[in-house]
Specification:
The structure is a homodimer. Chain A is an alpha/beta fold and about 400 residues long. The first copy, chain A, folds into 3 domains: about 170 residues, Molybdenum Cofactor Biosythetic Enzyme, Chain A, CATH 3.40.980.10; about 80 residues, Alpha-Beta Plaits (2-Layer Sandwich), CATH 3.30.70; about 150 residues, CinA-like (Maf protein). Chain A is about 45% helix and about 25% strand. The two termini of chain A are about 50 Å apart. The model of chain A has no long low-confidence stretch (mean pLDDT about 90).
Chain lengths: ~400, ~400
């Protein structure tokens, strides 16, 4: 199967937003064994849409589109696709009912242009959209199949995962099974070096290394006649990978580190708290992203001002005067003060320079109280972008807590 | 002037890297008044490259390409462009000397395929690349002009800024000025309905509505011979937009709401603190994303457990027993307790059900202490995904603080 990804959106042509849909779809289509030959982005323009569809179907059997399904005047993707396939646009009574129900339930005024979203090219298979008002649809004339999805990633991604991917994997012979092995404390090139002979020798299962959110990971994938065979092949290869880099692996189930940390805390009935300065609550936000984290996360004291550090965490005036707020002494007093305030089994603290502009940008200290012991470590992020520095500090806090849990 | 951006790169089609070049070029071309009609990404494939060039030049007078200029066999962008323009590929002695010098200086072995990088289509204007071995070039036959640049952003961006942009701005293609008008408390279709006659009547300035991160916005853009005229036209139209939806506008400079809130607090020398339960620090994280927020943000007390609510904020045991942690009474005591602890001019609190699974998911209360007054409001998010519910609650906290600042 060969595919073209067609994105409709003026915002992308203005450079106001990045085309993340094409990245997401490319990754997932490749996982499914579909070759992506082309990305095209156009605005809400009939001629360019038609020209893009012709180009796409000149050498592809499937086209996936995102965007242009909104209720507004300029959204014309659906109409143009109907024209391309020579179909009429007709009302789908079921979708009309759902749409009206949605507006009633949320008592939002339903304007005429909203009605548009219940009309589809004749012969379409509706792709439900539980996360928005614009459903997607699949249209095929046998040789050519198009999947039409909304633009917002939080609507498009579940629609692809739940309705498009299954159709593609069933359509194509062989079952694909893959595992994401996530690591901690090792870079992508070291990782690749340690696995190079396995990577070079690969046919099936395939091995590939990635970096995402400052985390290096290995994808082990196999496509076999049955899912059992694919799974067995992946497990066998995963064992070899484990032999090489076992010490760096924190998850073989594509979990986020915060998920693993929360699970470890839950299983041991331990409580965690954080004292944050430079991260401004990012660590607490990251931990509490995990459903059920309330069972293990007690509190975060985000002491952005020095006054707050003294009042909430008992950091001493002298310490701030003598060593400044960004020092190992302050980080230690923050962790100790947090334990005193919360009584949590594990208390992690951070203080540093998030930048931008500051010459010291990227310098931070992580303090830790864990099972009766206090410790502190100095870090220097290799990035200077405020967002990156804060993310790196948060990741290192997670690693610090994870390592403490592994030690115990 | 109309442009197509053509990216050549298999990694992009695999989804291994994001197409940031198209974002960078789109933004900069739009600022130069060049309309970007299309993005196309293909791999190193002669037929698809030729087809893309035909499509691009069917309605554009300029095409900018990035990628495919490497020394290896599969890099065929240059050859294919020469074929498309009907030019021979000839050696550029000056570039050959530079290239050989580079390899000598970095004492790197120079393979035969490296020589390729000193050959260009006849009639090309070389675009120097001080950051890599592959120079770019410009080729024109009068009606059609192509700018060919390397793929790595650190090579492409300076090449565009120093050699491509000047050529484009000198060309007579008008000046584009635009404004992003961001709104609060109104949906996209309501917004469009209120502006429909203006949108329908538009020629220049143009009006378009967007939604991003639960925020509906209007883009007002004009292209005129001079920047002054463009700006005047946009300002005139913006005034009309303001007449229709003025009450919903929080920024006409494409700022984030947190940026606007931080600016308002700074200009009035006011302090802000937050008491967070369901958002788990997301509000504090969002405010402290803004550089310089340390001048206005004092602290966040993320009281995830009931014990923490009582210890840090003085929420009463009876209140939790009688009304539960998710109640307007608790939200009020959180805001009051936070003011007592921090003395901040504005203290915002939130408690609710982030979900998932919980029947009450999406229900939350926002408490506010502002300038001596306490208030509380009940909310029900229209989404049930944990991430969405938390984001919506955070947005509503920002709105609550913003509205309080506007009232005073």
């Amino acid at each position: 199967m060969k595919a073209t990804i067609l994105t409709v959106g003026t915002e992308i042509l203005f450079g106001s937003i990045t085309n993340t849909n094409s990245v997401y779809l490319s990754q997932h289509l490749n996982f499914l064994g579909v070759d992506v030959l082309r990305h095209i982005t156009v605005g809400d323009n009939r001629n360019r849409l038609l020209e893009a569809l012709s180009a796409a179907f000149s050498d592809c059997d499937i086209v996936l589109t995102t965007g242009g399904l909104g209720p507004t005047e300029d959204d014309m993707t659906k109409e143009t696709i109907a024209e391309f396939f020579g179909r009429r646009i007709i009302e789908d009574p079921e979708q009309m009912a759902i749409l009206k129900g949605w507006f009633a339930k949320n008592n939002r005024p339903m304007t005429d242009n909203n009605l548009k979203q219940a009309y589809f090219p004749e012969g379409s298979v509706i792709l439900p959209n539980p996360n928005g008002t614009a459903p997607g649809f699949m249209l095929s004339d046998g040789a050519r199949t198009i999947f039409v999805m909304p633009g917002p990633p939080r609507e498009m991604q579940p629609m692809f995962d739940n309705y498009v991917a299954p159709k593609l994997s069933s359509a194509d012979n062989g079952c694909l099974y893959y595992k994401m092995i996530k690591t901690i404390g090792i870079g992508e090139s070291d990782l690749e070096t340690k696995l190079l002979d396995l990577i070079d020798a690969q046919t099936d299962p395939t091995l590939a290394t990635y970096v995402k959110d400052f985390t290096a990971m290995v994808r082990v994938a196999s496509k076999r006649p049955t899912m059992e065979e694919a799974k067995a092949a992946v497990d066998e290869m995963s064992a070899k990978v484990r032999d090489r880099i076992g010490g760096y692996i924190y998850s073989e189930d594509n979990e986020e580190l915060q998920q693993v940390v929360v699970n470890l805390l839950r299983s041991r009935k331990l409580k965690l708290s954080s004292a944050e300065s430079m991260t401004g609550g990012l660590f607490a936000k990251t931990i509490t992203d995990v459903p059920g984290s309330s069972a293990v996360f007690d509190r975060a004291l985000v002491t952005y001002s020095n006054t707050a550090k003294m009042q909430e965490l008992g950091v001493k005036q002298e310490t701030l005067d003598k060593y400044t707020a960004v020092s190992q002494e302050t980080a230690l007093e923050m962790a100790a003060g947090l334990h005193k305030a919360s009584g949590s089994d594990i208390c992690v603290s951070v203080t540093g320079y998030a930048g931008p502009g500051d010459e010291e940008t990227g310098l931070f200290y992580i303090g830790l109280y864990a099972f009766g012991e206090l410790s502190v470590k100095k870090y220097k992020a290799r990035r200077t972008k405020r967002e990156d520095v804060r993310t790196i500090a948060c990741m290192d806090m997670l690693r610090t807590v994870y390592m403490a849990l592994k030690r115990m």
